[in-house]
């Protein structure tokens, strides 16, 4: 075996966490190697998760004519004729382009990309096993190592995944027809997003979940409105259920028997029952760190494992397991590893964006969380159909909900459901980052007509509620 090739940093895994770590370390002037077992970089974010699912959603909205229906009340949908090629064409182009862009940036930063599967030999050495037909191994050695190997779909034993019409979220991208009916197992983020997308395409969707609330981490008003809207779209929820058996004949419908005894017959099954990690395959014992019972890598606030020069970021460390936060963690870890204070911690507020139909997004405290913390609050709400832009786009269910700390009217939470919610939340997020609140919204001139103007309307609502609550006339409110 030739001697190990020396680097300052080895990164294992080229998803958003790993790539951000590698680019950051290169920017700090370090010699960096990144090991990726896939043919392309980008990880789940670019190749199997975030970007594909969001692109498919956008295509589905277009080919199903959903927006046209809302605007002119006419079904101009082409969905009955839509073929799977129509659905996936744009997704393939966007995904390839994004992976190429990430790779180009790595190359421009001078990061060396090793194609193969990485595994620890000892605390400083990573062995890269190249895929066949080239095969063989290569050892890399570095002072610092960052693990960013991501996660993969959980596969409950009850489902025969070898069946061509039973999919996890990775395999879904290779379906060969648009199903007529679909059972989605798991109403988490992935399940909810795909349920909405297929429903928009006219697929009969059943959503089965062990819980009884949709996305319980959301503000209850959002969760409730989303569930209602999904039901109106035709999605059938089966709460507090579990699949006990799954009979999948070669042809004909797949039969699911649920815990309650209910039976469902569907064309395809999509299992979105959470994610798991393959960290045990890295030989962590050779490096000297352990795993949690769920197979995740425990880290400290600097993303260091118990072995001080080995870091872990992204899905492999667990919550929040997002592309956005994984990149942030990668940057923090790389800066810490090389003593840079350019980015010492994650951003103070981390938003969540869910691409259901309609979109949902939030940052900061929910009304419930604020009340549990005994923070005196006032809530402002503005509905899309009270706003001229909302009326123009025909969004009847959307709303913006702002949570203000009552004394100073400082913004502490933003919750949006409706078109462009994942973009709209950023206005509130930026205000929260500045420590601002109602005054800033009132002082700001928004374009007219825009959804952004909802912030002003929701602020007025909060101010009026505050004056009702405190029994003061509105004029005295300039005091805050
Ligand atoms: C369907 C779906 C939709 C999603 N939508 C969103 C969204 O809208 N917004 C959002 O923020 N997040 C979303 N996510 C989550 C997001 O994709 C992940 O949080 C993010 O990709 C995690 O980044 P990562 O760098 O930790 O790992 P990954 O992106 O999973 O990358 C890990 C990389 O490591 C490689 N690897 C693994 N083991 C080895 C090894 N031993 N050697 C070498 N390479 C290895 C893998 O091939 C992979 O390329 C979604 C996920 C899914 C599945
Ligand atoms: N827009 C986004 O930010 C976005 C989109 C998709 C995925 N993601 C990330 O991907 C991760 C994984 O998403 P996910 O939806 O797979 O997992 P999840 O953990 O969010 O949801 C899994 C759901 O499946 C249910 N469940 C699990 N096993 C079940 C069973 N046997 N029968 C019935 N219900 C069952 C759970 O009750 C839960 O509601 C998320 O944590 C999220 O961070 C983010």
From TrEMBL:
Its cofactor is FAD. FAD binds at residues 54, 118, 315. InterPro entries: Class-I_Pyr_Nuc-Dis_Oxidored (IPR050151), FAD/NAD-bd_sf (IPR036188), FAD/NAD-binding_dom (IPR023753), FAD/NAD-linked_Rdtase_dimer_sf (IPR016156), Pyr_nuc-diS_OxRdtase (IPR001100), Pyr_nucl-diS_OxRdtase_dimer (IPR004099). Its main location: cytoplasm. It is found in: Cytoplasm. GO terms for molecular function: dihydrolipoyl dehydrogenase (NADH) activity; flavin adenine dinucleotide binding; NAD(P)+ transhydrogenase (Si-specific) activity. Pfam families: Pyr_redox_2, Pyr_redox_dim. Transmembrane segments: none annotated. GO terms for biological process: 2-oxoglutarate metabolic process. Keywords: Cytoplasm, FAD, Flavoprotein, NAD, NADP, Nucleotide-binding, Oxidoreductase. Residues 7-330 form the FAD/NAD(P)-binding domain. NAD(+) binds at residues 186-193, 274. Its EC number is 1.6.1.1. Binds 1 FAD per subunit. Conversion of NADPH, generated by peripheral catabolic pathways, to NADH, which can enter the respiratory chain for energy generation. Belongs to the class-I pyridine nucleotide-disulfide oxidoreductase family. This is Soluble pyridine nucleotide transhydrogenase. It comes from Gemmata massiliana.
């Amino acid at each position: 075996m030739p001697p190990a090739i020396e680097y300052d940093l080895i990164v294992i895994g080229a998803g958003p966490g790993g790539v951000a770590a590698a680019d950051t370390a290169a920017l700090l002037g370090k010699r960096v190697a990144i090991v990726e077992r896939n043919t392309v970089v980008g990880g789940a974010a670019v190749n199997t998760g975030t970007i594909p699912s969001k692109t498919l959603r956008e295509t589905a909205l277009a080919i199903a004519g959903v927006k046209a229906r809302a605007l002119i009340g006419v079904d101009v949908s082409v969905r009955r004729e839509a073929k799977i090629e129509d659905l996936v064409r744009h997704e393939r182009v966007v995904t390839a382009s994004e992976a190429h862009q990430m790779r180009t940036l790595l190359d421009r930063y001078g990061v060396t990309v090793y194609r193969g599967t990485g595994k620890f030999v000892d605390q400083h050495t990573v062995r890269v096993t190249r895929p066949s037909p080239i095969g063989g191994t290569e050892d890399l050695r570095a002072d610092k190592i960052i693990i960013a190997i991501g996660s993969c779909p959980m596969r409950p034993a009850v489902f025969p995944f070898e069946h061509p019409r039973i999919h996890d979220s990775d395999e879904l991208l290779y379906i060969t027809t648009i199903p007529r009916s679909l059972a989605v197992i798991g109403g988490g983020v992935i399940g909810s997003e795909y349920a909405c997308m297929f429903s928009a395409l006219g697929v009969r969707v059943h959503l089965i979940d062990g819980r009884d609330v949709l996305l319980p981490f959301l503000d209850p008003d959002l969760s409730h409105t989303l569930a209602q809207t999904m039901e109106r779209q035709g999605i059938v929820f089966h709460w507090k259920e579990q699949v006990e058996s799954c009979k999948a004949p070669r042809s004909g419908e797949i039969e699911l028997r649920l815990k309650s005894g209910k039976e469902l017959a569907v064309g395809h099954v999509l299992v979105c029952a959470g994610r798991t990690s393959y960290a045990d395959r890295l030989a962590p014992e050779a490096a000297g760190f352990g795993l949690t019972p769920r197979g995740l890598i425990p880290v400290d606030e600097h993303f260091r494992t118990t072995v001080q020069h080995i870091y872990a970021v992204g899905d492999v460390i667990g919550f929040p397991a997002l592309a956005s936060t994984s990149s942030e963690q990668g940057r923090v870890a790389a800066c810490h590893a090389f003593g840079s204070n350019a980015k010492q911690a994650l951003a103070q507020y981390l938003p969540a964006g869910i691409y259901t139909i309609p979109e949902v997004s939030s940052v900061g405290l929910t009304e419930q969380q604020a009340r549990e913390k005994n923070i005196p609050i006032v809530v402002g709400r503005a509905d899309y159909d009270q706003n001229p832009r909302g009326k123009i786009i025909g969004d009847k269910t959307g709303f913006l909900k702002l949570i203000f700390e009552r004394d100073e009217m400082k913004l502490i939470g933003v919750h949006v459901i409706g078109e462009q919610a994942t973009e709209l939340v950023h206005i509130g997020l930026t205000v929260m980052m500045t420590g601002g609140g109602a005054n800033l919204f009132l002082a700001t001139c928004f374009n007219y007509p825009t959804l952004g103007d909802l912030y002003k309307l929701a602020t007025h609502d909060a101010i009026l509620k505050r004056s009702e609550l405190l029994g003061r006339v509105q004029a005295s409110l300039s005091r805050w």
